[in-house]
Design a protein that fits this description.
The chain is α/β, with parallel strands linked by helices. Helix content is 44%, strand content 9%. The chain has helices at 4-25, 39-42, 102-116, 132-142, 161-169, 180-196, 213-222, 241-247, 253-258, 270-283, 293-303, 307-323, 331-339, 352-359, and strands spanning 121-126, 147-153, 200-206, 233-239, 259-265. Strand 3, helix 7 and strand 4 form a beta-alpha-beta unit. It is elongated. 29% of the residues are buried. Residues 4-11, 24-74 and 353-361 have low confidence and may be disordered.
Length: 361
């Protein structure tokens, strides 16, 4: 038989999720104004009707874009409760929300330098969810019109297959049954033609840690196409730390020597995590202080400052706070999210090496 505390906790969770589901479906629910903590809150023990003005006096409603044909309305998870114009912690990479941490500024500078200096190969690595794809999207916004851009994601296959991925990324038509020599000649002709027009070609390979050493070596060979003065093809490789480990292996010495610029993105510090959360809230129309300092500290402790993980917890914490009619996300709110297993964390790898060493004694 369930313990009484478990039944109470279960009812509280059910109530919160029911409110969230009603919000998602657009069902009406009592409208309340969230009051900031302090004496004013004590004078208003009960929920007050929501006025026609925005919940926060200094917050201005953002202009709504024209509806696109077939567009679906964005579900109101918690935005109205906190006076937000959109969800600030979506997991979809959005360069409009990019927060320039010191590490992201340096990484972007390296990307800019690699393109401007026509470096043969530029490498950006970082743990999952550190903002690599968002940086790429920001770079694509500033590249000149003279750059012909190709983007390859999750490329795979043996010799010749990569070349087809490259031609497809650059929108270069080619015969389906063409052999490797014909494909390489097609790419070389396109690169020379772009160079003759005063353009240069940039190939971006995302999730490059999935490539094999043989495929990386094949990419290096593509950078050998040059005009004896300028590089005709620039490579930008973005991936997880395994990519850097692979490049540093002895068998890829030639590839490593062709890398003109590289940077490794690290997670955010505790202070930067707080600034990051406040930035995204303000960008979405909030005040920036919707999370208590203790809540921010707990979020950083649980995520190690990885932006994607920070977004996951913050999104759920705002949902819980709105469902509980809280004016602010507290450490207790974050603990509720963590305690109810809505946030999935990766377990640390088993110390196999240590176990093997113990067994050999």
């Amino acid at each position: 038989m369930p313990h009484s505390d478990d039944r109470v906790a279960g009812r509280a969770l059910s109530a919160r999720l029911r409110r969230a589901w009603q919000s998602l479906r657009g069902e009406p629910e009592p409208q309340t104004r969230l009051l900031p903590p302090g004496p004013a809150a004590a004078q208003h023990p009960g929920p007050a009707p929501l006025p026609s003005a925005p919940p926060h006096a200094d917050a201005q409603p953002a202009p709504q874009p024209d509806a696109q044909p077939g567009a679906q309305p964005v579900p109101n998870f918690y935005t109205a409760a906190f006076g937000l114009t959109e969800r600030p912690f979506s997991l979809v990479p959005d360069p409009a929300f990019l927060y320039w941490t010191p590490a992201h500024r340096r990484a972007f500078t390296v990307l800019e330098y690699g393109v401007a200096s026509h470096a043969p190969i530029t490498v950006i690595t970082g743990e999952i969810g550190t903002g690599k794809t968002t940086l790429l999207q920001a770079l694509l916004r500033i590249l000149p019109e003279t750059a012909r851009i190709g983007l390859v994601s999750n490329a795979h296959g043996g010799r010749g297959e990569l070349l087809r991925w490259v031609l497809n990324a650059l929108d270069v038509p080619h015969e389906p049954g063409a052999d490797y020599v014909a494909l390489f000649q097609r790419l070389q002709d396109v690169l020379l033609d772009e160079y003759a027009r005063g353009n240069h070609t940039v190939l971006i390979v995302d999730e490059a840690q999935n490539l094999t050493p043989e495929t990386l070596e094949e990419l290096r060979m593509l950078t050998n196409v040059n005009s004896n003065k300028d590089e005709l093809l620039q490579l930008i490789l973005v991936g997880q730390p395994e990519l850097r480990d692979m490049i540093e292996a002895p068998g890829l010495r030639q590839f490593a020597q062709r890398v003109g610029a590289s940077f490794h993105l690290t997670p955010m510090s505790a202070e930067t995590t707080g600034d990051y959360i406040a930035h995204r809230l303000r960008h979405a129309g909030g005040r920036g202080d919707e999370f208590a300092p203790e809540a921010v500290a707990l979020i950083h402790d649980q995520t190690d400052g990885v932006p994607r993980l920070v977004n996951k917890i913050c999104d759920l914490a705002l949902l819980y706070a709105a469902a509980s009619e809280q004016a602010r996300v507290t450490a207790e709110t974050v603990s509720d999210v963590l305690g109810e297993d809505l946030f999935i964390r990766t377990r640390p790898a088993a110390p196999q090496a240590a176990s093997a060493a113990e067994g050999s004694k």
